[in-house]
Amino acid sequence: MADRRKPNSPPPAAQKKDLQWKFWVFGIAVLLLLIVVLQNSQHVEFKILFLVDTSAPLVLLLLLAAVIGAVIGYTAPILRRHRHKTRQEYGKE
């Protein structure tokens, strides 16, 4: 009764250490992104789905690409996990 943690959960110290590691990786990735973005400040011309020809600062396009990549990288594993759990619930695996 003294230890109320779940039997499979890691100790709190291990959870905190894992969290710090993720923050360092995220911080380094953001720093590298900022360096690349700040070095590319010129205007560029680009097409959107072969329909629209326009120009915009390369900084904006790089940030937009990074945000889209982060959203896909964050949501894809969640959707895959959900789909896997759904298949297990219906007995398809």
Using brief descriptors, characterize the structure shown.
13% strand; flat; 93 residues; alpha+beta; 65% helix; 2 helices; two-stranded antiparallel ribbon; single chain
Shape: flat
Spans where pLDDT lies below 50 across 5 or more residues: none
Could you give a short account of the major beta sheet? Answer: 2 strands, antiparallel
Termini, distance in Å? 38 Å
Topology, number of strands: 2
Q: Rg, please?
A: 21 Å
The helix fraction, in percent, is 55-70%
What is the average per-residue confidence, as pLDDT, rounded to a whole number?
A: 79
How many distinct helices?
A: 2
Helix/strand-derived category reads alpha+beta
Adjacency order of strands in the biggest sheet: 1-2
User: How much strand?
Assistant: 5-15%
Please provide the ordered H/E string of secondary-structure elements.
Answer: HEEH
Give the domain tally. Answer: 1
